[in-house]
TrEMBL record:
HAMAP family for this protein: DHO_dh_type1
EC number: 1.3.-.-
Record field: transmembrane: none
GO biological process: 'de novo' pyrimidine nucleobase biosynthetic process; 'de novo' UMP biosynthetic process
Protein name per UniProt: Dihydroorotate dehydrogenase
Listed GO CC annotations: cytoplasm
Single Gene Ontology MF annotation: dihydroorotate dehydrogenase activity
UniProt-annotated binding residues for FMN: 31, 55-56, 110, 138, 176, 202, 228, 254-255, 276-277
Record-stated family: Belongs to the dihydroorotate dehydrogenase family. Type 1 subfamily.
Function, as annotated: Catalyzes the conversion of dihydroorotate to orotate.
Primary site of residence: cytoplasm
Domain of life: Bacteria
Active site (record annotation): 141
Amino acid sequence: MSTSSVKPPKGPDMRVNLCGVEFASPVLAASGTFGYGVEFEEIVSLDRIGGFITKGLSREPMAGNAAPRIIETAAGMMNAIGLQNMGVRAFVEEKLPKLRSIPGAVVITNIFGFTIEDCLQVIEILNDAPDIALYELNASCPNTSHGGMVFGTDPTLLGDLVYRCKMASKRPLIVKLSPNVTSIAHMATVAAGAGADAVSLVNTFLSLAIDIETRRPRIANITGGLSGPAIKPIAVRMVHDVANAVHIPIVGLGGITRAEDAVEFLLAGATAVQVGTASYADPRAVENIATGLRRWCLDQGVDKVTSLTRGLKT
Ligand SMILES: Cc1cc2nc3c(=O)[nH]c(=O)nc-3n(C[C@H](O)[C@H](O)[C@H](O)COP(=O)(O)O)c2cc1C
């Protein structure tokens, strides 16, 4: 499980170090699109990808929002799942032991709470569990009426949340930022100032789709979060903005479907990337993108993938 023993492979060196944890590849599976990891064991070689982020874990199990809560759009997906999850205790008891037996599975747990106290309790439970590499704090879910995006769009609340969670964490803390703000660079600066070890961006964009026959929203929650190829150029721009504002590592995501998309995020300033919606179209997308990125580096004569980070020429 420890990644410090990852051996340098032949060909390009794809290893990246994120907050002191070494990953065999910079390509990770994004939260909410890869279950709890175990569901993908038969489909994806977990040792070929960098690692994965679990579905957001809350203090108590959550049923999520009413259906319909996921729809297709012209260039991606809208969802308002509402953080349905089994709860942190069930994850630790039922899923984590199984994950520990899968070679190469590097686990990052995504944390969600309606209040700061909720998040602290989730962290306390995870602190006592073995073999988790990092925590990702979801300060950006657009699909709940409190917590989530509320934290990620108010700088004072975000600073408070991050500071208290960081103080409680026994593991490095990545803070996942909302794109639904005027200046994501400012929010990243607040998170870094409050002790975040890294930031990940972006979560989904608040959006609305209307069925013109019924004149009703296509999602029961009325609004949902837009993800997939449509958001990629905005997400890359945001990673670039954040790279100019903070010195902590950045994990970039939003609409990555091929290795070349991952390269864009790295050049914009990301140390690692995550693949989300693409796993719905192809459950092996994360592995294919990790393999494709390695091949791209080989073809382009890139010896170390880390040399791409912040490589944008302006
Ligand atoms: C169905 C679905 C569920 C998601 N659930 C979570 C979640 O529980 N926690 C979280 O931080 N992000 C969640 N996300 C956001 C994704 O991790 C990611 O930030 C976003 O979809 C953008 O990346 P993509 O375009 O590659 O999907 C979810 C996204 C989707 C599509």
